Amino acid sequence: ARDLTMQDVQQIPLMHLVYVDQREFATVSPTDDFIRIIGSGNATTCHIAVLRGSGKGVTSLAHLDGSETESAVDAFIKSVQQMDQSEKLHMHLVGGFLDDKKHSEKLTKEIFRACINNEFRIHLQTACIGCLNDVVKQNATHFPIIYGLAVDVRSGDLIRAVFPDQGPDMLIRSATNFIGKGTLLEVYNSNNPGRLVIDPVEWRTWNDLDMWLTLPDPFIRKYLSTSPEQEVATFEADSRKVLKFIQDNPQPEKTLFVNNKPRVYQKEKSGEWTQI
Questions:
Q1: What GO terms describe the biological role, i.e. biological process, of this protein (predicted)?
Q2: Is the pTM of this model over 0.90?
């Protein structure tokens, strides 16, 4: 944990990257010619988990937020095991801090419990969590040290990271975090190399959405985050964009997913994703 928190933060280019948003995961083989880096960011009380097979080195990264944690961890583990077929899986867990409401601690315990109860053998190699990922700043307020993490699929190296470009359909993916079903979604799997898949979703009704869009920034920050003081400066603006998108697309299964089919993207040589 000390080595990881002392790293310089690197900007990760889009070239060989698949970005994982909250409540998503991606599973990549070292032989995948399209993807070499999996990453995720903007984690405060959320945890970013990396799982790597001891056989073929198949690697998966998940952004866990406490929604249906046990089933999320099970899906995450099975995805790696099905591709790697190894006796032991190595885990790195990064995120959370000493927040006042102890959301981070609760999530850590949920993840550990899910791993302990899982049928596969999990070897915890990195636990940069809680007090090990905590720094005290202005007004004696606690903050996470690491907000973003990437993993090099071929070497297994962990990287403190930020992501200038997060890939396609981020408004859809962010909206799903707000009012989706809470299920962990696999957006990339090397069984279909180069293909990022956004499966059809249905959004729960958000009452008084029009009112929420008129509320002042402090209210948005306070009630739409588990850690208001630790969020990035663009949190309010980003949240409003997502709320407006939900308002404009109340039935995504009809307007965004034609004939209830997933939105599929192909990774190009330039690093861009092209919808197919």
A1: ubiquitin-dependent protein catabolic process
A2: yes
